[in-house]
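Re: the 273-residue chain
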Amino acid sequence: MNPARRSLAVPRHRPWPACRPCWGVALDMGSARTRVWLAGRRTIVDVPTVTFPGSGAEYPIRRGAIVDTAGTARMLDRLLGHRLPRLVRPLVVVTTPVLDGIAYRAAARAAVAVLRPRSVLTVPGARAIALGAEADLTRPLLVADIGAHLTEVVLLSDGAVMDARRTSLGTGDLDSAAPAEIGEAVVAMVTAMVRQDRTSLTRDALDRGVLLAGGGALWPEITHRLGDRLRAPLRPVPAPHTAAVRGAARILKAAHGHPAIIGAPPPRPPDHT
């Protein structure tokens, strides 16, 4: 092989995740819990979303919004600073609420900067859940993510978000709200999506069944209400509270070896002379 061409070849990798250039972190930061998957570890780190700037605890993420970027950064540094290998700049994949848009992504990127990432990718939480559940994304899919303080219902088609609804209500509100109230909120969002969809996507996805994730998928009072009112199959995700971070981890694994991630030079254009 020509030495010049050899230098442009993609470097050979050690088995993933031992490959240091591809070392990564998957993050799912909720208002109640933050879940992290680290390359090279077999378990998911699951801790409260809390920081301690002074004499008491503060909660930097509320109802799906990062309200304290500096506090979120402190939390990530405390949680991951000692777990990351020295001199490694990880690829970080962060799940985001579907309807928080640019503001959430910008705040998440600013907070994650404390980890010195080489790159940060954001993925809608509903898509991450579908990936974590190994769902078929070639067909329309309804995802209901019932978290501690936020519930989202999202329609995916070919993995892309086609419609989404949310309510600032979750299992953390059950002291003041009944489980039936959360179930009815999900039913109302799904019903509105079906009525306003001028195509058959939402109806096809509903007939296929609603993919349930988040801690609310573990509450029989909520799931029974959904089944009775929607008259559609329910498909609870195994370990539903960690589905999103597992999906983000799958994106990290898929990124292994990609030239855009490891910093390899692009292929040399063909010689037409």
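The mean pLDDT is 85.
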